[in-house]
Amino acid sequence: VPVDLERMMCRLISDFQRHSISDDDSGCASEDYAWVPPGLKPEQVYQFFSCLPEDKVPYVNSPGERYRIRQLLHQLPPHDSEAQYCSPLEEEEKKELKLFSQQRKRENLGRGTVRLFPVTITGAICEQCGKQIRGGDIAVFASRAGHGACWHPQCFQCTTCQELLVDLIYFYQEGKIYCGRHHAEHLKPRCQACDEIIFADECTEAEGRHWHMRHFCCFECEEALGGQRYVMRQSRPYCCRCYQALYAEYCDACGEPIGINQGQMTYEGQHWHATDACFCCTCCRLPLLGKPFLPKGGQIFCSRGCSLGGDEASASDSCDSALHGLRPQDGRRAPPRHPAVARSISFADRPLFL
């Protein structure tokens, strides 16, 4: 991990831990692990980690340690807490970010506490899986969730992404626990381009996702798409020109590209314009839209006779009895990719927190 990044992570984790609600801050050092739950004896540390998948146990210099680092950065984005890690913000946005961060730490942030369930107690029910935690089992408790609320170690996960909560840091909201990233997104939209929470009064919404107004642009040429037609591919917006140049399919009949506003027929990797002129019998040119057809050697035919050549074709028609005993092969009609237009939404009349 680069030195600057490591320092930033250490400072942020220290800050989260300082503000979190936890019942036990005593430590248990272990040279074998990059991190251990505080307050446990060595044998309890082993018992805790034995509940987790092997590749997620943070042994020093292991895949588990690398997983932990990735999750720290993903679950606790620094730009969700401090303006210095964001792209340039307006002064009002900086104020909102500060209030947003402070309120989340004050009202929602917590750190799970690991301890043995007393053997003298019958047990409890895990909040995640609904199965029993027996006396003598190790469990994770979250004080913000209420007295007695507990989880199996492997069940202490974010409600949204279902990943283990890194270093047991959680955010509690409306009866559910979240990682920092998804708790923030529960309250405010996140820009798909820069990954930052949107504090501006307006943003662009498309396909159920959000962007800063200035960031909604073509993934290829970076042309602004606000109010313009676009096509979404793999959650990335493209202007019509770039999408056609990069991803247009070519018709197997005429060889011309199939435009984003045109219908197309597809079958086992082949494509045709959804027109009578292109999607038709190779031999007799009978239109096949909405009709059964017989594929052969990369071509399509209306009947067995046509598929065998001209002599038998003259004795056959599109209702040739040879097709009656076959299961009709229907090409899949793909709808035209009509470009959409993103809409702007305003947060001016909304409260800071939902």
From TrEMBL:
Domain spans labelled LIM zinc-binding: 124-188, 189-249
Family indicated by similarity: Belongs to the prickle / espinas / testin family.
PROSITE patterns given in the database record: LIM_DOMAIN_1 (PS00478), LIM_DOMAIN_2 (PS50023), PET (PS51303)
Species for this entry: Gopherus agassizii (Agassiz's desert tortoise)
Name of the protein in question: Uncharacterized protein
Pfam families: LIM, PET
Native organism taxonomy: Eukaryota, Metazoa, Chordata, Craniata, Vertebrata
Domain PET: start-end pairs: 14-122
SMART domains cross-referenced by the UniProt entry: LIM
GO molecular function annotation: zinc ion binding
CDD domains per record: LIM1_Prickle, LIM2_Prickle, PET_Prickle
Keywords: LIM domain, Metal-binding, Repeat, Zinc
